[in-house]
Write a structure and sequence with these properties.
Helix content: under 10%
Number of strands: 9
Shape: globular
Order of helices and strands: HEEEEEEEEE
Structural class: mainly beta
CATH superfamily of the domain at 31-108: Rieske [2Fe-2S] iron-sulphur domain
Distance between the termini: 21 Å
CATH topology of the domain at 31-108: Rieske Iron-sulfur Protein
Amino acid sequence: MSTADQASTIREVDLGTEASFEKLPAPVSVDQDEFFLTQDKGGAYHLLSTICPHSWGTVINWDTCFMCPDHGWRFERGEGICINGPRSQMYSFTVTVRDGNVYARIPEDKSQWA
């Protein structure tokens, strides 16, 4: 497979039924990776990686936001936008709902997450 093909390989993952996510943000595991399923003020879903975009630490659900304990960056819970540091955002993936199921589109290659 060429580098161009690898860069464009995106997998669609069935996260489960929309009804199964009773409280958001909700922790979600896909293979070995951890995420939060969130919903922004407009009602759109987002799948946010728990990998910190700054130092690759693990972002946790903390108080009223997400936070990376490694350096204290905090992110709002809808779209994962940094609220106390430089312009930054958690890695976010497209989410759709079809026939009552929630699907996320995640690049196979983590270097494409940015």
